[in-house]
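Dear U.,

For the methods section draft, I wanted the exact inputs and outputs in one place so we can describe them consistently. I've listed the two proteins in the order they'll appear in the manuscript figures. Please don't edit the token lines directly; just add comments below if something needs changing.

First protein:
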Amino acid sequence: MTDPQPPVPPVPSPDGATPPPAPPAPPAAPAAPAAQPTYPAYGQPPAAGYYAPPTNTLAILALVLAFVIAPGGIICGHIALSQIKRTGEGGRGLAVAGLIIGYVFTGIFVLYIIGVIIFAVWMASMGAAYSTYPY
């Protein structure tokens, strides 16, 4: 494509002097580093293919319940693991952590109850041996 109008010649100044020469061209920009990853702009969703699978809700619940109601964490952890295996969701680590913590806390609670029962039986037997009441 050619320009239909001819170039305009430089206009001489009123005193007859020639115009000053054009300033030199700016230096070329430095070359961009090779293979830098591109990130999405702030507030923009990542590009397709970068989404992580959603986290299973029961896996999160299993971890929370393991600290509050340990048997609930165990139940939710087992259900979450089966759902994760079936659907491919994320959160397997959360479910396993909920299971482990739930089992540990349940074991500690069972040992505590056994200790309380043993202590109560021991105190009852010692109380009868040292009774000051006549029979």
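Second protein (the one for the lower panel):
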Amino acid sequence: MGKPDPRLVTGREPMAVIIRRRMPVSLPPLLSHALRPTVVTFVLVKSRARASNERGEAIEGPTSEDIRTLLSGLTYANRFVIVERLDVENDEHYMQAYLEDNGTYRLEYREGAADTHFQTSSRSLGLVFQTFTKWLYRLPGWRDSFTWHSWPGESDGRAVDRAGEI
């Protein structure tokens, strides 16, 4: 494993990202470069956060694998996971996933004041996990997979992730 990209190492916490690329074999060379999927694997690094779920389970300094485990455990008897930042001035910095009755995940984040509270929804647990992990490690682009709406916002209950998964 090489050195972590210095742009991904913050002064607040150490982190590293390993990026692997797989080349599709069925595409011509000119298209394969543009359409090549990127697989991102996050190294297990403790964060300055606390994660909890509806059952009351709490993890101090959760890793991306801890977040994956908590999100995978969402059921109609254990509907939410909240991750709170501990490295900020107040306790209004968090991300939350909530399992709706129709099987979609409502995703919320707040960055302090009430006017920085946003929501979206998705049927893709993978996208929800990816967004949580990028947010947790302060990686750029964590908002990009979704269209976010101010909280409380009008919602028709449909998922709105940008990958087209409804």
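Candidate sentences for the figure legend, describing the second protein: The first helix runs from residue 29 to 35. The longest strand covers residues 93-99.

Thanks,
Y.
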